[in-house]
Amino acid sequence: MRIQDTPEEWPVTATATPFTGNKTSVRTDEVEMPDGSRVKRDYQVHPGSVAVLALDRDDRVIVLRQYRHPVRRRLWEIPAGLLDIPGENPLHAAQRELYEEAHVKAEDWRVLIDVYTSPGGCDEAVRIFLAREISVAEGERFEVSEEEADMELARVSLEELVRGALAGELHNNCLALGALALRAALSGEGIDALRPADASWPARPFDV
């Protein structure tokens, strides 16, 4: 039996948006259950995100260290950003984030893994790309501000990231999922079996 997620939508009999923020909002839906009862579900409405696991010629991953206020921690992460332009091509967004946060470009792009970060309370969908054949980008570095102005960049082996995630030392979901997915791909059918960079993404349809 092939295990596969499937689309489904239970009836929503009422909806409200009690909070609207700069990039996300909170929605309250009244949902009809299969037995006919109705319950309220609160969740964060999110535009979606992309992340990039960029691998250099020495099989090191570009990572950055950034302060994250909600968890009161400075986390090691991979370059990532919001899909805050409706219908934006996720590959284009990923290429932009890699340039802005690491000032590099890549010639080879694949889809590594697609996930929902917290489907019980948020509709955020994330596409994590694998980027290879990287080189320094032309032009001036992107000007950063706020938390990003204090970022620290490094290149770390894939094995060290996998070890750190399994040891409970690295907690960023995109970094951990990306590293573990790449390790699984390398141990399985290989990188050439990964989906192409323009593979369809039903969770966040995009313009070609």
UniProtKB/TrEMBL annotation:
Residues 44-183 form the Nudix hydrolase domain. SUPFAM superfamilies: Nudix. The keyword Amino-acid biosynthesis does not apply. GO terms for molecular function: ADP-ribose diphosphatase activity. It holds the Pfam family NUDIX. Its EC number is 3.6.1.13. One of its GO terms (cellular component) is cytosol. Keywords: Hydrolase. Residues 1-22 are annotated as: Disordered. PROSITE patterns: NUDIX. One of its GO terms (biological process) is nucleoside phosphate metabolic process. The keyword Repeat does not apply. It is an enzyme of class 3 (hydrolase). PANTHER family: ADP-RIBOSE PYROPHOSPHATASE, UDP/ADP-SUGAR PYROPHOSPHATASE. This is ADP-ribose pyrophosphatase. It comes from Streptomyces iranensis.
